[in-house]
Amino acid sequence: MIDRIRHVGCLGGVAGMLLLAPNVLSAAEKYQVYLSAMPYLDANQPLMSGKGTATATLDGDTLSISGSFAGLSGPATNAHLSLSRGPGIPGTPFADLTLTGGTAGKVTGQTKLDPSQLVALRSNKLYIQIDSHTVSSGHLWGWLLEEHDIVGQDVPQKGPWFVPPFAVKTK
Amino acid sequence: MDSWGIRTTQELFSLIRTTMPPDNPNSLGTDTYAQIVAFLLKANGAQSGSTAITPNTTVPIASIASGEMPAALIASADAGGGGRAGRGGRGGGRSGLTVTGTAKNYSAITEDMLARPPDADWLMHYRNYSGWSYSPLNQITPRNVGGLQLKWAWPLEDGMRQQITPLVHDGVMFLSTNMTNTVQALDARTGDLIWEHRLGPIGTAGQNATRTMALFGNLLFYPATDATLYALDARSGNVVWKNKVSENPDDKIGGIMMAKNKLLVGLTRCNELDVRDHCFIAGYEASTGTLLWKFYTVARKGMPGGDTWGDLPDDRRSGADAWIAGTYDPQLNLAFWGTGQAKGSSRDQRGPGGDALYSNTTLALDPDTGKLKWFFQNAPGETLDLDEVFERVLIDHGAQKTVMTVGKSGLMWKLDRVTGKFLDVTETVFQNVWAAIDMKTGRTTYRDDILEKKPGQAVASCPSPSGGHNWQATSYDPVNDFLLLPLSQNCVMYGGGPQMFYEMPGTDGNLGRLSAYETDTMRPVWSFQQRTPFLTGVISTAGGVGFVGDFNRTFRAFEVKTGKTLWETRLPTTAAGYPVTFSVGGDQFVAVPTGYNGGSPQGKPNTMLRGEIERPSIGHGVYVFGLPKAVGQ
């Protein structure tokens, strides 16, 4: 099974954006998110279930998020956009997202990012966190990662493999 | 007690109740869970008190338990016998040379044969001195590999960890069983048993696994789990000599290897904080077992590097285990070994200190004297149980002689093996522990919050201590200049008590990945990922076919050039250990061991696969496949 994900940057509306916001990039930036369970506390381990995906688009300084999830052990209660030190490291919420559904549903939202948050986004430091009735401290989480090619299970991908950059390499 | 002493009985109660039994947590009732907690505390030296344990009892564990098991409990466990003699075996409690026979037409192995192994054989852990796990056999190809069929299988006793490398010479396959320290010689073509020696002891392996044996002359070297090194006559199984490598009952033998007529032996599990000995690599005269030298992998006060442990007293400097076999360059006459992390595993356990030499280091040793020619510390002052101990692969890039290795953090290193100079490094899996890497020196720097971690505080670590890369050895294919990497993809909250595992960002829950990296450019050529991790080493062949096995009982052949799966089969339980390929009578075979307890790379992902992947808890064995024309039997 090949499940190839490829998001192509949208060029639409570039001229208008430039007129309104001359300091931002001319093309929308796309990000992809895998939502998965995070057993942050011992007691949560048996309760962890569920998965999801989301995409995020940065248009000017506005970040729009759209995703879905399923299989939670309890209904989703809250969703946030959070800032962390980097992928895989718990951080702090700074914007609320909108939830629909229960143990399965959708997560959406739109927020303006300040300059430091824009830098964080482009450093893979922003993530979506979804809380639930069973795990109130973060049931699903997933980092906004720059768009990249990835094939499905058991299918070899030729050439580069996306590894989110983290270490600063100095010379 | 290192991690649990600072936590409370309430936390222990909560953990057990919410995670046990694995298939139905919180199903046993409060009294039963209380009894389990009470037993665990008693088994760790706690005395019975007057107050009953409840889910809400909050007592610091270190205040009531010492971590020492009472003698009466040890005795009752030893007398119990249940399961300790191994399951599924044919020994029936016997010991000694239980099956006698002679390997016919067995030729003595020379130093020259080890330097240039006969095509048909697999004479050592990685097949050649350079650590390539590559065979020049080319009968099995991408065109015909689909016809592979089972030729024979052989059960090995269940229990403990089983991660062996079968060795093959002159049509004889040598196997060992970790649980009972049994060594066997079989006809590699038919699977008929030639001899069997039950050396014992039974069930002392603990968390250690015997991964390597070695061959030289007419001798087969076997490192028993009680740290006794045996030299057996490979033809008959008779003991020629034996030597206790360490008298410390906790110590185990890690990797062993031959180098220039010497048997090099690494010590492991010599790593607890009540140090009675330090870990070492030792050289033995192969023909007699005479100890020639020891190189201690912990720098003590007054020695070179001794100041890298701060003020920590010598008896608190521990770890740097040599638990994986090294490699050897006959031209340079240098043996290359890696070491594990310092113990205690985290900086806050060791106290203010420094790099803790020679932990997580590449060592270049003179096999004649044990003298250190150079070293490069891959992970200075390591603090997250991320070993850099694994195979050192010797690859020439033009005139430049390099040594390459990949550690648990997934960094793939390239060093000049003449001088130890850092040449290059690349991240093969996502990692968030190293905030900076100096590309001139190779020096790594941790994230601030890792350096500032306090006792009992958890920090996020990608990868987890399962790796990245772990004991499942890479393979170097010289035809394509590919290093084939079995990789694990998961993360952990580490250091705050029980380790809590979660998906590695960007992997979509795929815990296993196999990648081919071109070693000249350090760039990936192909990769594929799957839900479960790979739990065998990888091998490659001149036929252009590679082999690897996984957690979910699949053993597969893949095209080395593209990564495409060409053939696969299911085994009774997890494929674990090191596949090998060999030929007898002109027919090529491939063998793979099974074992359901693979240590960190198996246990840590297992917490994420619970309820999803079911594996039998029996089924240790070896499975041998060949093409249809190799009728054999």
How would you sum up this structure, described in words?
The complex is a heterodimer of chains A (171) and B (633). Chain A contains two helices and eleven strands, in the order H-E-E-E-E-E-E-H-E-E-E-E-E. With 171 residues, chain A is mainly β. An eight-stranded antiparallel β-barrel of chain A has the order 1-2-3-6-5-4-7-8. Chain B has 633 residues and is mostly beta strands. Chain B is 9% helix and 33% strand. Chain B has seven helices and 41 strands. In chain B, strand 22 and strand 23 form a beta hairpin. Chain B is globular, with a radius of gyration of 24 Å. About 2% of the residues of chain B have low confidence. At the A-B interface, strand 1, strand 10 and strand 11 of A face helix 1, strand 26, strand 32 and strand 34 of B.
Number of domains of chain A: 1
Q: Roughly what is the average pLDDT of chain A, rounded to an integer?
A: 84
Using the alpha-carbon principal axes, give the shape of chain A: globular
Distance N to C terminus of chain B: 53 Å
Helix content of chain B: under 10%
**Uncertain residue ranges of chain B:** 77-89
Structure summary:
The complex is a heterodimer of chains A (171) and B (633). Chain A is mainly β and 171 residues long. Chain A has 2 helices and 11 strands.
Task: Please write out the topology.
The complex is a heterodimer of chains A (171) and B (633).
Chain A: H1 14-20, E1 29-37, E2 51-59, E3 62-70, E4 76-83, E5 92-101, E6 105-112, H2 115-122, E7 126-132, E8 140-143, E9 145-146, E10 157-158, E11 168-170
Antiparallel strand pairs in A: 1-2, 1-8, 1-9, 2-3, 3-6, 4-5, 4-7, 5-6, 7-8
Chain B: H1 9-19, H2 30-43, H3 71-80, E1 96-99, H4 111-115, E2 134-135, E3 149-155, E4 167-169, E5 172-177, E6 182-187, E7 193-198, E8 214-216, E9 219-223, E10 228-233, E11 239-244, E12 252-259, E13 262-268, E14 280-285, E15 291-296, E16 318-319, E17 327-329, E18 334-338, E19 342-343, H5 347-350, E20 361-365, E21 372-377, E22 393-397, E23 400-406, E24 411-416, E25 422-427, E26 434-438, E27 444-446, H6 448-451, E28 459-461, E29 475-477, E30 482-488, E31 490-494, E32 500-503, E33 512-518, E34 523-530, E35 539-541, E36 545-549, E37 554-559, E38 565-570, E39 580-584, E40 587-594, H7 600-609, E41 621-626
Parallel strand pairs in B: 2-35
Antiparallel strand pairs in B: 1-7, 3-41, 4-5, 5-6, 6-7, 8-9, 9-10, 10-11, 12-13, 13-14, 14-15, 16-19, 17-18, 18-20, 20-21, 22-23, 23-24, 24-25, 26-27, 28-31, 29-30, 30-33, 31-32, 33-34, 35-36, 36-37, 37-38, 39-40, 40-41
Helix pairs in contact in B: 1-2
